[in-house]
Amino acid sequence: MSEVHQAITAHSQKQHAIVKQFLQLEAKREQYIDEAVALCQNGQPFTVEKINEITKQMNELAKQGIVPQRKYVTVDMVKEYVKRLKK
C-alpha cells in the first residue's frame, strides 16, 4: 500500500507544480498585456512578443492536460481592446 501512496503523492505534487508554474506565468502574461495596453492607450509603439513567449510556455504546460491553453495575442487584438475601453 505504501508504494501506491507514494505514487499518488508524487503525481499530486507534479500536478501542483504545474499549476503553480502556470499561475506564475499567467501573472506575468497579464502584466505584459497591461503594459502593451498602457503603451497603446498613450499612442506609443508596443509589441506582443513577450506576451506570446509566455503564452507559448503556458501552452506547453497545457499539453499535459492539467491547465488550459491560452490564445496568442496580436497587435490588432490589443488595439481593438483599447478601442473598446474608450467607449
TrEMBL record:
MF terms (GO), sorted A to Z: nucleotide binding
Alphabetical list of Pfam families matching this protein: DUF2533 (PF10752)
InterPro entries noted in UniProt: DUF2533, Thr/Ala-tRNA-synth_IIc_edit
Full protein name: Putative transcriptional regulator
Species of origin: Thermaerobacillus caldiproteolyticus
